[in-house]
Specification:
The protein has 864 residues and is α+β, with helices and mostly antiparallel strands. Helix content is 34%, strand content 20%. The longest helix is centred in the middle third of the chain and has 21 residues. The chain is globular.
């Protein structure tokens, strides 16, 4: 009895008004405070303490089991708590297998499905801490686990009888630990509650992201990160009926829960809104009891498929985001004068989580029935498109990676086993036509259970009912991968087989052992990996500035040449081994005399060098932009580089490197003073290659650093604008004077370019454009366009037709993007300055553009 009273006190003292933590509790189950030595919300719980409590909980309760489903880059475990009645836990494999039957109505008829619906518990997955510094949710996870394992009240028992609860207590352990270690060191005995206090403001890069600084809440559809890959694999073993992703937002806000804001993706069924309202009502009732303010449907939409609410929803669940106001400190003073504490933040997430579980338990059959209906209605989607077609010819391994990304998410993909003719419309073409598709072409039919997710990921143009987007407005995977893709109104051809995985293409040497040279075409991403290994191994390579034909095969500009006479005999074995490793087809040449074009000893053949690379990191760099580069070099290409803080850059440091990259970020002028700018200019003139990406490119313009003559569109003077432009600006200013507050807010909202696909043209005769087609598609965000340069080479420029866009783009922004620069190359002395105005590594799933950066690094440095 004494232990029961202690347990009740340690919980109720912190959560006296909580409508769920009211006991009674099993006294044999340890409370968090009894193990941790402090009450939840008075300190931040690090991973060691979190695991220590969970170990005790698992050992003490027969309602819980724990599995490790993966490992982070920093070798921390990814774990899942499975909580239910002992009877349910004893037959988890049976329940999982039966639930998976509901996801394919082709093999599970409605009568069998109804029997399963009547007998199965609902499965609810609760994800906490995907953003490592949104710190209250893992604390709430411990409270929720305790309540479910120790509570003997009827509400808790009802949840256990009717559901299986899956708790991911820390979805981003690396980011969480980075945050907790910092805040623990920054905090004293008493919280410093003012917003300007050090403990309220994390240093760069903060704990939001994972090891490689990726936002894991935007990676669900792309599976670029180890944590996401492991989570999706395990998620698909369960296919939950409800998924909640717990977050935090600005401390001046309150609490957000579903229903979601618009737009909601057009392919999602109306049940999504119905359940959002149902869960929202339950959350409101729970928070009403505590007098906690909240809001719904104003900010977080259900459109971009890579979120922890939308991706589960595209997989049949009711996926929802719950956002609690928060900040890094244990307490913070808000503008209203009240103080928001970590205790309250954790309590609120606990309360909404329990309300969600109770609602699911009370409506178990209805939720399962709608879950089955979701998959049933997906088998024959409305609309003329019946499938997507993708050719693998340009880069088979890049195509294979995209297909494997689809397969990992359960999307069915078939491959043609013979040549087939189909009526098809190429992405962004004006009309359909009869096309021949060769053996090996991929076909994704929309007559499958996963048609909604397939449509969302593949469609070339998204359709939205609203023009506010919380994230980008378009993301088509075939476009992102730079593949030739089509839509078709025809069903799946008979000449196709269903795939379970796609193995990388096995490369090799065409033509056997070369007596004169090996030729490496430059159209495939992985060719850069092969070339880097050869250069790192001490081999000598050159590249062709112009096309040529040898052995009746045409080779484009950018082809890499490995002369046998300029290399050691080990070249033959090394190049064959690397070709097989990276799936690259090389070609043996037994002569340097071409049939057409330049010969292999031409002055239009230049030597390649192994460049030393530096990347600016820390403020003002955007952490995720640096993370993309870090991941690309480190994990994908295995290219060494040195990360240098901007404030540490000097003439001595610069002299060590051939290439310096300025990633996207804020204003570089805050760290690069006139002395550092002078060092950069001198370094470039002596042969350095300076590459600016987005904000880094902005810094390199005439009015920012003066390093180049490039101009941002906003820096143009009045005498450089057309008469029409001046009249339009004048009319907008006059209209703005008479706007109401609401009209101004709406206009500003509608003028944001959230991220849309624009057509661009590449100079394929320039080294940066080697290996590319003339026409590419670029994801353009709200950044200021760059005016086409007079003093530099406009290697990439956006189409003059501002209507050639996919996604949402306001007319005023689209017109300014039209005929603006995408990439400009400036010569300065012996060096180069390259401005790339948009990201070419967007979330590392935009695979079709990253070679533009690789080309700049490999081809532009001059021999020193």
């Amino acid at each position: 009895m004494k232990r029961l009273l202690i347990a009740l006190f340690s919980i109720s003292s912190a959560f006296a008004q909580t409508p769920f933590m009211q006991g009674p509790y099993d006294p044999s189950i340890p409370t968090p405070a009894s193990v941790l030595g402090y009450e939840i919300g008075t300190r931040y719980t690090n991973l060691w303490n979190l695991d220590r409590y969970l170990d005790r909980l698992v050992a003490a309760s027969n309602r819980i089991t724990r599995v490790v489903y993966g490992e982070t880059y920093e070798h921390r475990p990814l774990q899942l708590l499975i909580i239910s009645t002992p009877e349910h836990l004893a037959r988890l494999d049976e329940i999982r297998a039966a639930n998976l039957k509901l996801t394919d109505p082709r093999t599970t008829p409605s009568k069998e499905a109804e029997q399963l619906i009547n007998s199965l518990p609902a499965i609810v997955w609760l994800s906490y801490g995907v953003h490592g510094n949104e710190s209250s949710s893992p604390e709430a996870a411990l409270l929720t686990a305790y309540q479910l394992c120790a509570g003997t009240d009827e509400r808790t028992m009802n949840i256990l009888r009717n559901t299986i609860v899956l708790i991911d207590p820390v979805a981003n352990p690396d980011g969480r630990e980075r945050f907790v270690q910092w805040i623990t060191g920054a905090s004293g005995k008493n919280p410093q509650v003012h917003p300007e206090a050090y403990e309220q403001n994390e240093p760069w890069p903060n704990g939001r992201t994972n090891h490689y600084l990726f936002d894991l809440n935007r990676d669900w559809s792309w599976l670029t990160q180890r944590e996401t890959q492991a989570r999706i694999h395990h998620y698909r073993r369960w296919m939950p009926h409800v998924h909640v992703d717990f977050h935090e937002m600005r401390y001046t806000s309150t609490y957000f829960f579903f229903p979601a804001a618009v737009p909601i993706h057009q392919s999602l069924p109306p049940e999504v809104v119905k359940w959002g309202k149902m869960f929202g009502k339950a959350n409101a009732e729970a928070l009403n009891m505590m007098g906690e303010p909240y809001y719904v449907g104003e900010l977080f939409d259900m459109f971009y498929p890579g979120f922890g609410d939308s991706w589960p929803t595209f997989n049949g669940a009711i996926g929802m985001t719950y956002e609690q106001a928060g900040q890094s400190g244990r307490a913070i003073r808000r503008p209203s004068g009240d103080t928001l504490t970590l205790r309250v933040r954790a309590r609120n997430h606990f309360v909404t989580g329990m309300a969600t579980l109770e609602t699911t338990a009370n409506h178990r059959r209805e939720r399962l029935r709608d879950f089955y209906t979701f998959w049933e209605s997906a088998l024959n989607p409305a609309g003329p498109t019946k499938g997507f077609i993708m050719k693998e010819e340009a880069d088979p391994n890049r195509a294979a990676r995209m297909v494997n990304t689809l397969l990992q998410q359960g999307i069915e993909v078939h491959q043609l086993q013979s040549d087939v003719q189909l009526d098809a419309q190429r992405f962004y073409a004006q009309r359909s036509r009869r096309e021949r598709f060769p053996k090996g072409t991929y076909f994704i039919s929309l007559q499958q259970p996963h048609s909604r997710l397939a449509l969302a990921l593949l469609e070339p143009k998204t359709v939205a009912s609203d023009t506010f987007f919380y994230d980008v407005s378009v993301w088509s995977l075939p476009v992102a991968y730079g593949l030739e893709a089509y839509t078709t109104s025809q069903p799946l051809p008979r000449e196709a087989i269903k795939l379970t995985s796609v193995k990388p293409v096995a490369g090799g040497i065409v033509g056997g052992r070369a007596s004169f040279a090996y030729l490496i075409p430059w159209e495939r991403n992985d060719a850069a990996k092969l070339v880097w290994r050869l250069l790192s191994g001490g081999h000598t390579l050159t590249y062709a500035l112009k096309p040529f034909t040898i052995g009746n095969r045409a080779f484009r500009a950018g082809t890499i040449i490995a002369l046998t006479g300029s290399n050691s005999p080990s070249l033959h074995d090394d190049i064959e081994r690397h070709a097989r490793t990276f799936g690259i087809d090389l070609y043996a040449a037994n002569t340097g005399l071409s049939e057409h074009g330049i010969s292999l000893g031409s002055d239009n053949v230049r030597p390649l060098k192994l460049p030393s690379i530096a990347v600016i990191t820390d403020a003002p760099v955007r952490a995720t932009s640096y993370g993309e580069l870090w991941y690309m070099f480190d994990q994908e290409y295995d290219i060494p580089f040195t990360a240098i803080r901007a404030r540490d850059l000097s003439a001595t440091v610069l002299a060590k490197y051939d290439v310096l990259i300025l990633p996207e970020g804020g204003d570089y002028r805050t760290v690069f003073d006139s002395t550092k700018i002078a060092h950069l200019k001198h370094w470039v003139q002596t042969g350095g290659v300076l590459i600016g990406l987005q904000g880094g490119a902005d810094f390199l313009t005439k009015n920012r650093s003066g390093i180049t003559a490039a101009l941002l569109e906003t820096d143009r003077k009045d005498d450089e604008k057309t008469k029409e432009e001046k009249e339009q600006e004048k009319a907008r200013k006059e209209a703005a004077k008479r706007e109401t507050l609401f009209e101004r807010q709406e206009r500003e909202r509608l003028e944001v370019l959230p991220g849309a696909i624009f057509k661009a043209f590449i100079d394929t005769t320039h080294p940066i454009g080697f290996g590319y087609p003339r026409e590419i598609f670029v994801l353009k965000d709200n950044s200021t366009p760059l005016v086409l340069a007079e003093g530099g080479l406009n290697v990439g420029r956006f189409s003059t037709d501002s209507s050639e866009v996919s996604g949402y783009a306001p007319k005023i922004k689209a017109s300014k993007v039209a005929d603006s620069a995408f990439i400009i190359d400036f010569r300065s002395g012996n060096g180069r300055v390259v401005l790339i105005t948009e990201t070419v590594t967007f979330r590392m799933f935009w695979k079709g553009l990253e070679r533009l950066l690789i080309n700049s690094i490999l081809f532009l440095p001059a021999p020193r």
